[in-house]
């Protein structure tokens, strides 16, 4: 199954334009937490689940986490690459392709 079409398309576009470098690439739609992502999985799947947010400390994470680990995707736009589709669209396609919905 093809589950990375958005990234594959971007990589082909990069190779064709010969705009090489280091880029951060994620789907569009703003910054979300793992909590938001989990809620979206259940919403798109049509399941009613009460997702409860927890902090890294409550989860028992041993590794130190940065307070802000957002990726800066501005170089993609500066070099003429189209933004990737919204993350909810990508998630819905993934859940459909894997038979979850």
Overall description:
- It contains five helices and no strands.
- The chain is an all-alpha fold and 101 residues long.
- The longest helix is centred in the first third of the chain and has 13 residues, at 5-17.
- The radius of gyration is 16 Å and the shape is flat.
- The two termini are 15 Å apart.
- The mean pLDDT is 90.
The average pLDDT is 90
Low-confidence stretches: none
Overall outline: flat
Summarize the main sheet. none
Using DSSP, what is the number of strands? 0
Report the helical percentage: 40-55%
What is the structural class?
A: mainly alpha
Number of helices: 5
Q: How do the SSEs run, as a string of H and E?
A: HHHHH
How large a portion of the residues is in β-strands, by DSSP E? under 5%
* Gyration radius, rounded: 16 Å
> How many angstroms does the end-to-end distance come to?
15 Å
Features:
101 residues, flat
Please describe the topology of this protein.
Layout: H1 5-17, H2 34-45, H3 56-59, H4 74-78, H5 87-97
Helix pairs in contact: 2-5
Quick structural summary:
The protein is mostly helical. The chain is 45% helix and 0% strand.
């Amino acid at each position: 199954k093809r589950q990375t079409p958005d990234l594959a398309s971007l990589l082909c576009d990069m190779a064709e334009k010969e705009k090489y470098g280091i880029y951060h690439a994620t789907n569009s739609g703003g910054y979300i937490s793992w909590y938001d992502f989990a809620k979206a999985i259940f919403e798109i799947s049509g399941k009613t689940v009460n997702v409860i947010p927890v902090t890294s400390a409550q989860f028992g994470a041993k590794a130190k986490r940065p307070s802000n680990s957002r990726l800066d995707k501005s170089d993609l736009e500066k070099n003429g690459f189209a933004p990737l589709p919204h993350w909810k669209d990508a998630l819905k396609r993934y859940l459909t392709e894997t038979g979850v919905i």
